[in-house]
Amino acid sequence: MTIAHNLGFPRIGERRELKKATEAYWKGDADYASLAATGAELRRSNWEKQKKAGIELIPSNDFSFYDQMLDQSCLVGNVPERFAWNGNNATIDVAFDMARGTREAIACEMTKWFDTNYHYLVPEFTRQTAFKLAGRKIFDEFEEAKAQGIITKPVMVGPATYLSLGKVTDDSGLDKFALADQLIPVYVEIAEKLAAAGAKWLQLDEPIFALDLNDAQREVIKKAYDALAGVKGIKIMVAHYFGELRDNIELFTSLPVAGLHIDAVRGVKEVETVATRLGGETVLSVGVVDGRNIWKTNLERAIGPLNMVRSKLGSDRLMVGPSCSLLHVPVTLRSETKLDDEFLNWLAFAEEKLDEIVFLAQAVDGNVDQAVLSTNQRAMVDRANSARIHDESVKKRVAAVTEDDYKRHSAYTERAQKQRGKLNLPAFPITTIGSFPQTAEVRKARADHKRGDLSDAGYNAFVEQQIVDAVKMQEKMGFDMLVHGEFERNDMVEYFGELLAGYAFTKFGWVQSYGSRYVKPPIIFGDVSRPEPMTVRWSKYAQSLTDKPMKGMLTGPVTMVEWAFVRDDQPRSETVKQVALAIRDEVVDLEAAGLAAIQIDEAAFREGLPLRQADWKAYLEWATASFRLTAGGVADETQVHTHMCYSEFNDIIEAIADMDADCISIETSRSQMELLDAFVKFNYPNEIGPGVYDIHSPRVPATQEMVDLLRKATQVLPPERIWVNPDCGLKTRGWAEVEQALIHMVDAARELRAAKAICVG
Ligand SMILES: Nc1nc2c(c(=O)[nH]1)N[C@@H](CNc1ccc(C(=O)N[C@@H](CCC(=O)N[C@@H](CCC(=O)N[C@@H](CCC(=O)O)C(=O)O)C(=O)O)C(=O)O)cc1)CN2
Ligand code: MET
Ligand SMILES: [Zn+2]
């Protein structure tokens, strides 16, 4: 019998119960018992949903109060020294300290999980690192499910992925892969304990199979699974997802384990090769239901590869699953009462995907539910032919784009001169990245407005008052280029998604981004255009309040697409081009409304980079082109900014230069300006605002720290091209810290100006 299998289920709850519980616990409004009870209820309900749907192999330990990588660090006792852990049981409080930092210890770094908008906490390794079994969560949750009558399949991040995604934080020159010899025995111990507890399967996630692997990584993989395969009484499944296996296919299929999972959405071409290569008794879990998108599976098409695998391996060696954990899609469509039936009929969230998996597992064994199949076929046809998807005027406009549309009139040096004349900025101009704190008051006003308890006029007046206050504050502090504060936006992507044609938005379609921070990715279902201006009224109003230049604030095309659920019926590059034209309209309108500077955020530019180097060039070409298309419609005098808030520019620095923004602000404070290396090495030609204030922490940096950072920057970059700004927007922070930190930032800029004046004088 083919098994209906799942890799992971969203942990946040249908109504963001997890967010509410964790934030209440952090604030001290709820005790541990209450937090634990919410966690237990979420797990119970998730297991029950899966069982009811007919999933036969149900995961456990896919739940987390914060992040699964962080949980893994706790499980193997890898808690950095600065957290003063007692060395016994790494509890949830230890995990929260690592995630959020304490008064004494800065938080662990957070970074993107492969090419998703999910962030994990980066494991830290030093000469002192010693692993040991230190967590109980995976065992407790297994017992919990058992008490509920379900023998689950515990899931954890595999040892090779764990080591690969961590980083060495001391200067010992340690080879992190050499830690495998210490780490693998802990994994073996965990597997043995789970076997003793009665677990039949253990899933180890190794998405690094989607990357270019080096020899050290291959060695770790071999060693780890040789050891783990030897554990008696439990079957090991290695799960690969997020891409094709390519040159890793041989290593993957030769692992001596009982089961393998493959991503049969992104890796559909490889299913046959994998199945052909599998020897002996190995079970293959075929992930045909897309865990990264929200479209209904084309069931008829999905049966094809399943039948093929069945014919090769037999149904006893076949499982059907999602391509990856369902963590990356919203929980359920049942709550989406606002969406119309036609559109609803195209979608499947996590719960609905469970039904698809079960249908397919039965279908491949010959039990085809004809009614389900024909409803599904009709949905596919309806969507493909829907008038809502196709907009001839958009298609025509895209086809008519010319080479010139991708270009500013003049080169940067000429533009810079004109902009200097117009903007008249001092040395080391001071600005921010866009958003100011999204206070409870701001969120409440928006919620009241949405609910209809606050009129349009009332809401607009409220937002205007926020802008007035923000402008006054920036003027008082001495900023040189102001922002309006983004108070009207729920999110930098969702806000635009609500205003663009071709995008739809959900009411409860939340997906975890990191910890208790979630996003509601809009859904791009059709050709995209901009029916009317989206930000002009707010930016124009803000500019009317001050003589200082106001920076218009937009989200760029790559980020608009990367952080949305995107249509799967045309290439991503085509969708991005449509979005670029829509945002270009807004850029042009902002200029016409008197905005002398416009920032186009491309926060997801790096994350959109394909996982395999061989695919980079093609991506970087269309991604940079889309930015130039967005920005290409304005005069030389209009200053175009962009912003990217992550590290690792080395790989893409030339592409960033190709974007030809007049100024780019980047995240650099945590890495002590290390990131600038790339800009220096490549001789980045335009202006740069290296972030001097780490906005991811509530900590207020001292003036001197920021002076030091700026001095570092002046040592490697021409001072006349340096801006002073924070790492990113300030929406997640509170006003008290922000005001303090910004005062320090302005003082720091002034100190540098004074030093420069002395030099020049
Ligand atoms: N899309 C996206 N991805 C991103 C980022 C980003 O800014 N956007 N930044 C990076 C880091 N990731 C982040 C992800 C989320 C948040 C964030 O702040 N999320 C908010 C939700 C933002 C939002 O949509 N807010 C809505 C809904 C707010 C809300 O919860 N309202 C209350 C009602 C409030 C009341 O009645 O008083 C409710 O519905 O219960 C709004 O402001 O309108 C959160 O989880 O708290 C920050 C950073 C990378 N990826
Ligand atoms: C995640 S990048 C954020 C950029 C946006 N303009 C902001 O300041 O919030
Ligand atoms: Zn940012």
Automatic annotation (TrEMBL):
Transmembrane segments: none annotated. L-homocysteine binds at residues 433-435, 601. GO terms for molecular function: 5-methyltetrahydropteroyltriglutamate-homocysteine S-methyltransferase activity; zinc ion binding. It is an enzyme of class 2 (transferase). SUPFAM superfamilies: UROD/MetE-like. CDD domains: CIMS_C_terminal_like, CIMS_N_terminal_like. Its cofactor is Zn(2+). Residues 428-750 form the Cobalamin-independent methionine synthase MetE C-terminal/archaeal domain. Zn(2+) 2 binds at residue 658. The active site is at residue 696. Its EC number is 2.1.1.14. Catalyzes the transfer of a methyl group from 5-methyltetrahydrofolate to homocysteine resulting in methionine formation. This is 5-methyltetrahydropteroyltriglutamate--homocysteine S-methyltransferase. It comes from Porphyridium purpureum. The lineage of its organism: Eukaryota, Rhodophyta, Bangiophyceae, Porphyridiales, Porphyridiaceae.
